[in-house]
Amino acid sequence: MKMKVKEVADLVGISVRTLHHYDEIGLLTPAEITEAGYRLYSDDDLEKLQQILFFRELDFPLKKIKNILDSPSFDRNEALQMHRKMLLEKRRRLDQMIETIDKTIQFAKGEIEMTNEEKFAGFDFSQNPYEEEARERWGDEAVDKSKAHIAAMSEDERKAMEQRYDAIYRKIAAIRKGEPDSEEAQAAIKEWYDFLNTNTGNHYSLEAFKCLGQMYVDDERFTKNIDQYGAGLAKFMCDAMAVFADRNKKS
């Protein structure tokens, strides 16, 4: 049964004006508009609205949400898993912030002592790694940059890039039964990290590189393609990329 805009607003707890705005910018267009001008929302519309509000809860701008939802690669179940990871991370940070506030209240009363480090526990202005993963996964900017970078190459340059890509994968596949933190494995993974940052038109931070490796095992499409070079390669690369990112963050 389709719902009118006021019914949806009351159900969700947002304003009618917000729903009208979502319609105006093409973010959420109702399934039907009657001859009298009433917007009617279907169950599919409500599912899409839920996705929008999950992204809003995580402070994604409306333009970015629209790009994500309009992407041909968007997958609802994948998005829900992403939302869950990001909200758990947000809850962890909030819990730590609340603990810092409680300690600060006690400190102000003279009940406890606090170190400078404890006073700022929970503050983290770096990029949320799961948000970065989401933006890398569904954002169009990285894809456009990569396509433009490759399009600007000559035929010989593209062939050389493809050969280099193939050589790196074969090298890593040959050592995939060893330890991902070995010197040999880390040297090969560094080649892969450098290749991505040199040939895709994008810069992968260490955190984004680590998240990319996790996607090799979380997304069966990645796993299937990578494991064509050897069974278990995706998992080995995931582990080696995580080691590489963690080690170089500390150095």
In short:
The protein is mainly α. The protein has helices at residues 5-12, 16-24, 43-57, 62-70, 76-108, 116-119, 129-138, 140-151, 155-174, 183-199, 206-218, 220-226, 233-250; strands spanning 3-4, 32-33, 39-41.
Task: Please tell me about this protein's structure.
With 251 residues, the protein is mainly alpha-helical. It folds into 3 domains: 3-70, Multidrug-efflux Transporter Regulator, Chain: A, Domain 2; 75-138, Multidrug-efflux Transporter Regulator, Chain: A, Domain 2 (Orthogonal Bundle), CATH 1.10.1660.10; 152-250, Antibiotic binding domain of TipA-like multidrug resistance regulators (Globin-like, Orthogonal Bundle). It is built from 13 helices and 3 strands; from the N terminus they run βααββααααααααααα. It has helices at 5-12, 16-24, 43-57, 62-70, 76-108, 116-119, 129-138, 140-151, 155-174, 183-199, 206-218, 220-226, 233-250, and strands at 3-4, 32-33, 39-41. A 3-stranded antiparallel beta sheet has the order 1-3-2. β2 (32-33) and β3 form a beta hairpin.
